[in-house]
Amino acid sequence: MMRHCLTVVDAVVKKLSPSQTPVVTVDQSLYALMKQIQWQWPDRFGEDKVVVLLGGLHIEMALL
């Protein structure tokens, strides 16, 4: 499901702004899945092609 999400987001961003890199923000459990997807398919969803960010609340909780 998350791989499909990345495919849809990538297609939409490429249609609206072809030079922009897609950025996806997810919470902690989905972040781990997204990173596994990026490592499994680096030619399609690699870290240079899609930026995956951890949600702000999880960053703040880790800081506190």
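Next protein, fold it too.
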Amino acid sequence: MAKTNKIGYVFMMIALLMFCCPNLASAAPIIERSVQIGSSAADANNISYDFTFTVPSSTNIKSVSFTPCMTANGVCGAVAGFDASLSTLTSQPTNLGDASGWTADGTQTVLRLKNVANLTSPTALVPTVVKFSGVHNPSAINSTFYIRIATFSDNTYTNLVDSGVVATSMAGQIAVSLAIDEQLTFSLAASTVNMSTPTVSSAGTGSSSMTVSTNAANGYSISYSGATLASGLNTITPMSSLAASLPNSKQFGLNLMQNTNPIVGASKTGLGSGMPSAGYNTVDQFKFVSGDILAATSIPTNTNTFTASYVANADGLTPAGIYSTVLNYIATANF
């Protein structure tokens, strides 16, 4: 008799559970749950909430809710500041059934979506993605809350199919700043150039290189200044206009090119946008005008290396001596 009573009590408990809590009796746990929130700023408006989760069964679903609570289970305490009443779907969800027809149905306290006419069941154990926008974040900083996910077989959020919980928080924001100063890098590879000796049939040559870069908004310019080659009162005539090298004459000039007559110099190298200026950008043509701009660019640029090619000629009447000069190279950033 006692055994019969015990069986009766068991049936009564099952019946009571199904009568009071029919949803809980059939729900299975949603797995692989996550949420990506567009901003962690407390009380921020118009924020995206992107959910990814996997339903364990292929039961037809017509509505889904995402309820923020202060605890993972038990009575759901409302999360202060959270507001989904203006939420919308960023896109149609994936793997909830039909590919269209889903609409946001949020309230102030719950993110929801539904599809009254959904006829297709989700594929079990395949990730589902639901993306909302227009959500107002909770107001408390550094607070953890829990979003309870539930799927329903009807469009009134009543007949529970599966459920799960994902934890998240409004950890606030950290403002990170970085100051990048105005920069100009300019260097000369050598301070001395010993040119070869010219003859009445060949030019004297030499070269030097310079490297430049800048983050200036309007780039840079490189200019040079100085006098022509001189030995005491004797001078080598500067090439005041663009001209070719002419042995057995008095000439001194330069360019920024790789020349073949005479063989001297190199083309520019590097990833920068700098270019030799007019008057100094023609192969086998040379010039010397103190104050001229040798190279320039009008935008911020990575490094370029330019080679200055020097050419000097002397005729048979040029007095013997050591001819020299000091040239000043100046790089100016255009901020």
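About the second fold: Residues 56 and 212 are 63 Å apart (CA to CA).
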